[in-house]
Amino acid sequence: MKITIWSDFVCPFCFIGEAHLNGALEKFEHADDVSIEYKSFQLMPDGEYVSGKDYVETLANMKGMPLAQVEAMLKQVANSATRSGVDINYDIAKLANTFDAHRVFQYAKEQGKGNEFFQRSYVAHFTEGEILSDTETIVRLAEEVGLDGAEVYKIVENQTNAEKVEQDISEARAVGVQGVPFFVIDNKYAVSGAQPVEAFSQVLNQVWEEEYAKK
Question: Whole-model pTM?
Fold first, then answer.
């Protein structure tokens, strides 16, 4: 069974939703037969890191929303994350453009490290306050999951893999992705959003019964 996930490193509901998926997989007796493939998506393609401004202020300015409204919204998201067992700390998180990091993810994927790079980047952004648009940061995170730092640096500086990121995003549009996270199981069963663990468990069992149990 293959699960394809369109996601972005700075998408809180992706971080939460995938924690729920992992919770369902822990209970799924056929989890060893499940493979996961990430695909690139940009939640905020116009997002940029602004030095000296915190996450609330940056997002409020970008979206044209009142500070109090954004602060309340992010607090609600952080509380939801805590209940799901993941740590989102908007006090230190840095809103940034993720396109360069996605280009490196494409390289990581080719090296068999795509999933590790994705998970490391989630934590770096939401928990550790790293700037995912910063070249040195991207290189360091890539090295931490076993990638060649010199090669990663060249990828960032030379705009390598831009077309692969765009291809993932175009494919998302083609299959009707309106937002992320978006999960597709065996290219035919779709799950959108940060569904609860029980919902993922239900669809995993349903797909297994319909596609594999009789084989």
Answer: 0.96
